[in-house]
């Protein structure tokens, strides 16, 4: 399953990102969904990737640079056809390696606290992410879970 730089003009990518955004908003209280839209993913501090198998788009993921040594996992989404097949693990490992290679020492993320997000939380925790206080511009929110990974010790 190759991971490649994502083409935000590819209609297949746009469709999967729309599903990701709609799902995040539908499964979170109003005002608590923090998924980036297409314009947000086009910002210069974002690296965006897609994962494919036999020409089928299976997932997306992004790394947002918050500071020279701190990054944030964004846009992690696995298409229905890719679930329970290691797609999320492959993308998360790619993002972690990319963060390390770019000199980051900390990687953080925000995800929802509702039942829909339990598989994502399990994935992140299985890779060493632990709960942390809100970071960057996030505020405390009972609908959010904030996680962080120390890249120097992980």
Keywords:
29% helix, 7 strands, 7-stranded mixed sheet, globular, Aminopeptidase, 154 residues, alpha+beta
Q: Report the count of strand segments.
A: 7
Distance between the termini: 24 Å
Helix amount, in percent? 25-40%
- Mean pLDDT, all residues: 94
Q: Uncertain runs with pLDDT below 50, 5 residues or more?
A: none
Total number of domains: 1
Strand content: 25-35%
CATH topology: Aminopeptidase
By CATH reckoning, the class would read Alpha Beta
Indicate the overall shape: globular
Largest sheet, strands/sense/barrel:
7 strands, mixed
Protein structure class: alpha+beta
Structure in words:
It is a single chain. This protein has 154 residues and is of the alpha+beta class. The chain has a single domain (3-150), classed as Aminopeptidase (3-Layer(aba) Sandwich), CATH 3.40.630.30. The protein contains 4 helices and 7 strands. It has a 7-stranded mixed sheet, sandwiched between helices.
